[in-house]
Amino acid sequence: MKAHRPPAALRVLVLAKTPVPGRVKTRLCPPCTPAQAARVAAAALADTLDTVGTATVDARVLVVDGDLPAPPGWTRLAQRGGPLADRLTHAFLDTRTAGAATLLVGMDTPQLTAAHLETARDLLGRTDGPDAVLGPADDGGWWTLGLRDPGHATVLRTVPTSVASTGALTLAALRRRGLRVHLLPRLRDVDTAVDAHAVAALCPPGSRFARAVAVDVPSPTAVAG
């Protein structure tokens, strides 16, 4: 049997942009209009917040760009820093609490489940467990990063973001720091219309994201035709 320390405190951060037309999900345009893309982004974020809200975690923080309020029972923190790497680093450092691990997710994987989050908590709480968990994304990036010691997030400043090698470079940077890293299941980010339909098919039929995609994102076959 795996040895366990007392259940680790886990703080989950959701890094998000306020869903304003023209500022979110711009790669959906075309075929979407900016207003449609913003509705899809809002739905993805709402489903993500709901999932985090149902997971067994100790604290929830919305780290937001813009004026979007946090759900009841959450803490709200404004993003700070310019490049994404800086904002990611500050999100970890500005919310760290002694004795608590931190897991960060974005708003681009509405197929996220509470089980994903609780698996990360279990791994980070094991006596023989990893120092970090990393969830690779299909596009070469990552959809989540969890750190037993959030101070290690400073390595993110050395990693280029939004490139096909971001995930591999993040993993290499964590390992160079001497951290033991466990890879979580690979998920698909929502960037394009093809992504949106593929991810919607993985979500519960009644999810906000699945409904928004059905209404606001023309199917790739329809666009091609």
Description:
The chain has 225 residues and is of the alpha/beta class. Helices cover 35% and strands 18% of the residues. It contains 7 helices and 7 strands; from the N terminus they run E-H-E-E-H-E-H-E-E-H-E-H-H-H. It has helices at 34-54, 84-95, 114-125, 166-176, 193-200, 208-216, 220-224; strands spanning 9-17, 59-65, 75-78, 100-105, 132-136, 142-147, 181-183. A 7-stranded mixed sheet has the order 3-2-1-4-6-5-7, sandwiched between helices. Strand 5 (132-136) and strand 6 (142-147) form a beta hairpin. The longest helix has 21 residues, at 34-54. The chain is globular and about 50 Å long. Residues 1-7 have low confidence and may be disordered.
